[in-house]
Backbone:
């Protein structure tokens, strides 16, 4: 649509400028904010070229704009970026994964060190991106690391963790990895996951295919 093209063109123009000289950080941050707000609002996938631009913009601001509080992007902006990136195209690229990883790591650095539970929704969406792009082992390592802290989970937290286990099993199923699917099922049930209809659907679909 027209407004999407405008947002993409603004970002593209600034990134082309970046190759020759450094545009004002304020302009880059504004373009980043507008782009992720537009994409998350429409729930429209970011294509590979756009993912490359938005990743480079994020990295440039983080690496060169340290004098500005939060390098010009508020935590709210990063959560918007999270919302935009979780809507994946049919064929996600390594740029999608790298951007999701970098945004999540920055969110962890800002708000997750003291209170990891506050980032469970972000963690869930990060796991979703990883499992949808063939990086399910990395996603499982993250979840296992999180659970190893022995943190108490309320009902909301338990739902997010259950969703992450389902994403993991779905990911290994999509990858055709029977060994890791079985191992993940055992790990999940050991951590209290009930064998309900959602779990049954994943397991039976895999073995029936």
Residues:
């Amino acid at each position: 649509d027209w407004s999407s093209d405008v947002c993409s063109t603004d970002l593209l123009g600034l990134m082309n400028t970046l190759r020759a000289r450094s545009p004002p950080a304020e302009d880059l941050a504004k373009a980043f904010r507008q782009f992720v707000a537009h994409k998350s609002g429409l729930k429209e996938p970011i294509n590979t070229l756009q993912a490359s631009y938005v990743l480079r913009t994020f990295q440039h601001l983080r690496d060169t704009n340290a004098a500005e509080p939060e390098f010009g992007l508020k935590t709210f902006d990063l959560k918007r970026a999270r919302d935009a990136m979780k809507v994946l195209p049919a064929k996600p690229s390594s740029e999608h994964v790298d951007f999701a990883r970098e945004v999540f790591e920055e969110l962890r650095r800002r708000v997750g060190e003291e209170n990891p539970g506050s980032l469970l929704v972000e963690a869930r969406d990060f796991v979703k991106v990883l499992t949808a792009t063939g990086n399910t082992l990395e996603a499982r390592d993250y979840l296992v690391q999180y659970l190893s802290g022995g943190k108490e989970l309320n009902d909301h937290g338990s739902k997010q963790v259950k969703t992450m286990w389902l994403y993991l099993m779905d990911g290994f199923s999509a990858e055709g990895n029977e060994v890791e699917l079985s191992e993940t099922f055992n790990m999940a049930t050991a951590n209290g996951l009930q064998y309900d209809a959602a779990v049954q659907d994943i397991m039976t679909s895999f073995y029936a295919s």
